[in-house]
Specification:
Layout lengths: L3 H15 L6 E6 L17 E2 L12 E3 L3 H7 L10 E13 L5 E12 L6 H15 L3 H12 L5 H11 L11 H15 L1 H6 L2 H17 L11 H9 L2
Antiparallel strand pairs: 1-4, 2-5, 3-5, 4-5
Length: about 240
């Protein structure tokens, strides 16, 4: 019988041999015990399969992220896993994409654990603002956003001012088209993250709220033809 340690070594060799091939890769966030929604238990190297039927939130799909940074930015508003672990996953079979927010595959196996990116509260707010800028074109708000991103003006007063200028336009998230829906949830996560609530300054909270309402306003005019590049935005948000 092959020992567990030997099996792990053989599997690691397989991964090294297949890097650079056409292997499809996605990323999965789990809790400290490698469990996900409803306590589903994953194991390294084991294939799992489901039907690939129904919408992405149904049991017919395994949920993943196309990029580890996007996954960690979206975690607070998706699974909300505390003390998460992050894995690189080999995926195949049927596929369903949710406009860059997440993706679903019908067959997958974990191939290796990777370091969890450390994201600061300011970086989360920056991500929210950058997403909002993709869909909201109000001149006054974008001028404020540029000043906040550059560090020129991060006062609570200025954030509250532009928020009040756009909050009058109310649009339900359910009616948002693809690009705006992506930005809506991206900005909502900045408001729901405990880091923001407990550790960030009031100006950062106001900035996140401003981005959130900008996206809600943009929902009316968004078109389904546009897709936000969340990977590019996530990388930009991490830059100092």
């Amino acid at each position: 019988m092959i020992s567990h340690t030997c099996r792990e070594l053989l599997f690691s060799q397989y991964i090294l041999q297949n890097k650079g091939t056409n292997m499809k890769i996605a990323y999965k966030i789990t809790d400290s015990e490698m469990r996900t929604y409803n306590g589903f238990q994953w194991k390294l190297g084991k294939w799992y399969e489901t039907t690939g039927k129904g919408d992405l939130c149904s049991p017919g799909w395994f949920h993943f992220y196309s990029d580890p940074l996007v996954g960690m930015f979206m975690n607070p508003v998706h699974a909300g896993i505390e003390n998460p672990r992050l894995f690189r996953v080999e995926v195949e079979g049927k596929v369903l994409d949710d406009y860059g927010l997440k993706c679903g595959y019908s067959r997958a196996r974990f191939i290796e654990e990777i370091p969890v990116p450390q994201i600061s509260p300011v970086q989360r707010v920056r991500f929210a603002i950058l997403c909002a800028k993709e869909v909201y074109k109000g001149r006054k708000w974008n001028k404020w956003a540029d000043n906040w991103l550059s560090g020129k003006d991060r006062t609570e007063e200025s954030a509250a001012s532009v928020e009040s200028a756009i909050i009058v336009i109310e649009s339900a998230a359910e009616s948002a088209a693809s690009a705006t829906e992506s930005a809506f949830y991206a900005t909502r996560l900045a408001l729901s993250t405990e880091e923001i609530a407990f550790y960030a300054t009031k100006s950062a909270v106001s900035a996140a709220k401003s981005a959130f309402y900008a996206v809600k306003s943009a929902a009316e005019s968004a078109t389904k033809s546009k897709k936000i590049d969340l990977i590019r935005i996530a990388r930009k948000a991490m830059k100092k």
